[in-house]
Design brief:
By secondary structure, this protein is α+β, with helices and mostly antiparallel strands. It folds into 3 domains: about 190 residues, Histidine kinase-like ATPase, C-terminal domain (Heat Shock Protein 90, 2-Layer Sandwich), CATH 3.30.565; about 120 residues, Ribosomal Protein S5, domain 2, CATH 3.30.230; about 160 residues, Ribosomal Protein S8, Chain: A, domain 1 (2-Layer Sandwich). The chain is built from 17 helices and 23 strands. The termini are far apart. About 15% of the residues have low confidence. It binds adenosine-5'-diphosphate and magnesium ion. The site of adenosine-5'-diphosphate has 24 residues, from helix 2 and helix 4. The site of adenosine-5'-diphosphate (ADP) has 24 residues, from helix 2 and helix 4.
């Protein structure tokens, strides 16, 4: 029998290897962005067409390549980043395998333009299916531009396997964010179908996070900073009250590389123990720097996994640092029984003198048998009063922290302590936040904001589905500016938005014209509501049209519900309570928080030891 084993031709081997490196357009985006960073670029531009299916182009102002390197970079295992296997343990660059460009060139039409600083002319190479088509000299600015067209053109099965444009775009944005979030000193921009999606100026970490994830992020961030022998930890976690139902904004970076590590993720989340309701996830942006020889990033081809030498120590450090920071920012309740009890003294008390112990002086001349005509006792139990000290204690109590005088009780009728069980349930508002209502078995505390969210959410879902909503025409239509990408999104959801009561005129350039709004909102809220809605939609990956409607209904309910802190009159309180209990799911807010708590009569009895 003749020999049958042969070496695969390079282009076939490359195509197979490409499967490892390039799963989808987003993989190409990641590799190209990383190459630009490794080339010391300070400005990087990403251009996408049709979710990367037609074009992915990255233009950088980095160090560029010589003519020979420009040709050579498409060879498999061609890299300038490591020379020996030992270098793997001291990696300073993102890339090191020398596989990305070879893989990409095997499955797409690639055009490379590159020029080094000292060169007069740059190099322009076209390569398709691993074959160089043309190579010529060209005028081009310093740096590199790589355009990847028609990805998977020669592997139809792969191309057909790609998801919808919105899903693939989401993946691309994820990769873009992961890179942009570790390099605040580099300016990045991203365009999709010629619409600007991001323009991120050179800045610091906090500003970059806010620029990437939206203005509202700023108030949510609690800084993390810790330096030990084994790790330096910086970044931010979200305050617990901003926890999300989705595990969206969780970014963990090790030596400037986005990494997934379930064990250390657990360390972060466990620092929030007792601070989050079940089903809620904190956001975090944590940056670990560890000595390069204590990690192995070589265990996964797409390199989002990493192995640490000393995982257990890192776990402990991360958990306690995050816990400590949450505590410092006064967001963790004092649940720890081992702590120093003096810490529990409200701050305003700390520097005050505690009143002196009462002193007892005894009248030694006292004779119990001696009767006094004035009938004044000779007992001289004198308790020193120390008026100033008492006063200072009192002022301390009056600070807003424990402001017992400011509890706001807004009775709907005169408080009637002898209310009969059969009478109509009365409602009271306390702290401009909770509606208290009595039921036969006890008392209900209803959070006004969450209750209203539930009511609106169910209303919107119904309106969106059955299409009837009240709208108020605006006398002067509002013109609101949005990015081109946002305008596109608004166009997509326009019909659904209209069924909640919005009315739009045609949009031009970066402006939409709002002619009518739901009767429940005021003009001044419109921009904020639409902005929040867009952000909520972008933060989700809608996998069915229903879920997009659901995201919309949730977002609108959240923005439009009566806020805590608003005083409600009797009628409004009753209206909320009444409507809440006609909802399909009155127990939980659309985002899953409990809407009310009950206190049973027998629990109250127990407290009185009855
Ligand atoms: P790796 O990044 O693992 O080295 P790649 O296939 O991504 O492998 O790139 C191969 C080589 O091409 C790199 O090592 C680098 O020398 C060069 N290169 C790639 N992209 C750029 C770029 N944008 N600017 C300068 N050089 C680049
Ligand atoms: Mg690379």
């Amino acid at each position: 029998m003749s020999d049958i084993i042969q070496l695969l031709p390079d282009h076939v081997a490359n195509q197979i290897a490409a499967g490892e490196v390039v799963q989808r357009p987003a993989s190409v985006v990641k590799e190209l962005l990383e190459n630009a960073i490794d080339a010391d670029a300070t400005s990087i531009k990403l251009l996408i067409k049709d979710a990367g299916k037609t074009l992915i182009q990255v233009i950088d102002n980095g160090k560029g390549m010589s003519e020979t390197d420009a040709r050579f970079c498409f060879e498999r295992h061609a890299t300038s980043k490591i020379k020996t296997a030992n270098d793997l343990f001291n990696l300073q660059t993102k890339g090191f395998r020398g596989e990305a460009l070879a893989s990409i060139a095997a499955i797409a039409h690639v055009a490379l333009k590159t020029k080094q600083e000292n060169q007069e002319l740059g190099t322009h190479i076209k390569i398709e299916g691993s074959q160089i088509i043309t190579q010529e000299l060209t005028t081009t600015p310093k740096g590199t531009s790589i355009a990847v067209k028609n990805l998977f053109y020669n592997i139809p099965a792969r191309r057909n396997f790609l998801k919808s444009n919105s899903v693939e775009t989401r993946h691309i944005i994820d990769e873009f964010q992961r890179v942009a979030l570790v390099h605040p000193a580099i300016s990045f921009s991203m365009y999709h179908n010629e619409n600007e999606v991001y323009r991120l100026e050179k800045s610091n970490l906090r500003k970059r996070i806010v620029a990437v994830l939206g203005k509202k992020t700023n108030e949510k961030l609690v800084p993390i900073d810790e330096e030990t022998d084994v790790v330096t930890l910086t970044g931010f976690v979200s305050k617990p009250e901003f926890a999300k139902k989705k595990r969206g904004e969780q970014f963990f970076f090790v030596n400037n590389r986005f990494v997934k590590n379930a064990y250390l993720h657990h360390a972060i989340v466990s620092a929030f123990d007792g601070l989050l309701s079940s089903g809620y996830h904190p956001s975090y942006f944590l940056y670990l720097t560890v000595p390069t020889n204590t990690i192995d990033i070589n265990i996964h081809p797409t390199k989002t996994e990493v192995k640490f030498d000393n995982e257990k120590i890192l776990y402990a450090i991360i958990r306690s640092t995050v816990k400590h920071s949450l505590g410092q920012y006064n967001v963790a309740p004092a649940l720890d029984f081992n702590r120093d009890a003096t810490l529990d003294v409200p701050y305003d008390f700390k520097n005050k003198n505690v009143y002196k112990e009462p002193s007892i002086t005894v009248d030694s001349s006292f004779n119990p048998f001696k009767t006094d005509s004035n009938n004044t006792s000779n007992f001289n139990y004198k308790r020193e009063k120390q008026p100033q000290d008492w006063e200072s204690l009192y002022t301390a109590l009056e600070t807003p922290k424990i402001d017992i005088h400011n509890i706001e009780v807004t009775p709907t009728t005169d408080l009637n302590l002898f209310e009969s069980e059969n009478s109509v349930a009365k409602t009271y508002q306390i702290h401009r936040k909770y509606i208290v209502s009595t039921v036969k078995s006890g008392i209900l505390f209803i959070n006004q904001n969450l209750a209203h969210q539930r009511i609106l959410y169910e209303e919107y879902l119904e309106n969106i589905t059955v299409k009837e909503a009240m709208s108020q025409q605006l006398l002067f239509p509002l013109e609101i500016n949005f990015s081109k990408d946002d305008i596109k999104l608004i166009e997509e959801i326009k019909t659904d938005l209209e069924s909640t009561g919005f009315l739009f005129d045609t949009s031009k350039n970066e402006t939409i014209v709002v002619k009518g709004i739901p009767t429940t909102i005021s003009e001044s809220q419109v921009t904020m509501i639409i902005e929040e809605l867009l952000e909520d939609i972008k933060n989700e990956i809608p996998d069915s049209s229903f879920s997009q409607l659901d995201v919309m209904a949730k977002s609108l309910a959240k923005s439009l519900a009566i806020k805590n802190g608003i005083q409600l009159n009797t009628e409004e309180q009753e209206n909320i309570v009444g409507r809440l209990f006609t909802c399909k799911e009155p127990n939980h807010s659309p985002l899953g928080k409990p809407i009310f708590i009950t206190m049973e009569l027998n629990e109250i009895d127990k407290k009185f030891e009855l």
